[in-house]
Amino acid sequence: MQVMSKRSNTNSNHERFMASMTFTSMFGNCDCDECDGCPEPSSETVPPDIKAAVKDYKRQRVTSASQERILTFRDNASGISIWEIVMPPGAEPLTELGGSHRFVLVTHLPKNRSVKIIGSGIVGSSAEQSNRKQMNWSERSAYLYPSVGGKKIGWVNDKDLSYEASQIDDKKDILEGSADIVHDVVIYVIKATQNAVKETNKDVALGYQQLLTSEQPKAMWTEQMIKLFQKYLKDSDISHDGKSNIGMEISSEDADMLRGIIDDIVKSKK
User: Fold this and answer.
1) What residue ranges in 88-212 does DSSP mark as E strands?
2) Which has the minimum average pLDDT: 80-94, 131-145, 146-160, 189-203?
3) Contact 133, 116 (CB under 8 A)
4) Contact, 116 vs 135, CB < 8 A?
5) Which residues pair with 189 in a beta bridge?
6) Tens of pLDDT along 11-64?
7) Greater confidence, 24 or 65?
8) Phi and psi angles of residue 151, each rounded to the nearest 5 degrees, phi first
9) Geometric angle at alpha carbon 187, from 183 and 193, rounded to 5°
10) Which of 175, 173, 219, 226 is CA-nearest to residue 199?
11) What is the C-alpha separation between 232 and 217, in angstroms, rounded?
């Protein structure tokens, strides 16, 4: 009887512990650190050390900055969309599946900041962070990122250690006006589906015809962007197998064209 009682207590403790774990419950498909809709387990069932660790993690998440993604333009008929992404220093990366081709237009890149692309593995893990690669971006330039076949893609705003080292002896540059410096990195991401850049795509051609009769500027914008994708995807030496994520800089003339299109789109909304 004593053996049975001990076993029963052991099973009961195990069941209470497992019930406190979200991945074993009916709510296991959501991230409870981001979702307020999930009922929290009773504090009596959560081991104190786990409860303290979760509380500390949530506190860090609340105090850290977040990246912001804003839809600027979308045309479902042509498969083109444009997003503005604002990356504060130290903010966790906004990640998305890289099934589409991308142009990244760098709008604002402070001298003391650099951008890194996320590495492989769980985002935020030590392994992923150690695999991040620095991008050789410059302000007002644009870069092609071919589809990576659905793998995650995202960027982070990091310190430019080489710039900081060069300013050690220049106290005036560091002290004067430092409070007025905007450290956010701002980019526009122009996305095109793989189907959109196919020259023989009849659906896209039909989309052009529909737009030309109703929204001629929109048709012109999408056609220019698709032709630009076709130009660089055809001539690019970048591997399309998803292994290359360093990007390829496009010509300054084409970067200016992308900037002009985005300026026109923004003006048309006012």
Assistant:
1) 96-97, 101-108, 113-117, 133-135, 142-145, 152-153, 155-159, 185-192
2) 189-203
3) yes
4) yes
5) 83, 104
6) 555 555 555 444 444 434 333 333 334 444 455 566 777 766 666 665 655 546
7) 65
8) -75, 155
9) 155
10) 226
11) 23
Q: Are strands 142-145 and 101-108 parallel, antiparallel or unpaired?
A: antiparallel
Three-class SS state of 149: coil
For the chain, the maximum distance between any two Cα atoms, rounded to a whole number of angstroms, is 85
Tokens 């905007």 belong to residue: 182
Least confident of 48-62, 86-100, 123-137, 145-159: 48-62
Count, in order, helices (H) and strands (E) of the chain: 8, 11
Asked if residue 163 lies in contact with residue 183, where contact means CB atoms within 8 angstroms, the answer is no
* Residue whose entry in the numeric block shows the structure tokens 């032709």: 227
Length of the chain as a residue count:
270
Please classify residue 200 by burial: count the beta carbons closer than 10 Å to its beta carbon, then call 0-12 exposed, 13-18 middle and 19+ buried: exposed
Residue 84, both tokens? 């503005």
If DSSP codes are grouped into helix, strand and coil, which group holds residue 168? coil
pTM exceeds 0.70 for this model: no
Q: In what order do the strands lie in the sheet with 68-75?
A: 68-75, 80-87, 185-192, 101-108, 142-145, 248-249
The amino acid at 132: R
Q: Beta-carbon neighbour count of residue 81 at 10 Å?
A: 18
> Mapping DSSP to helix (H, G, I), strand (E, B) and coil, where does residue 160 land?
coil
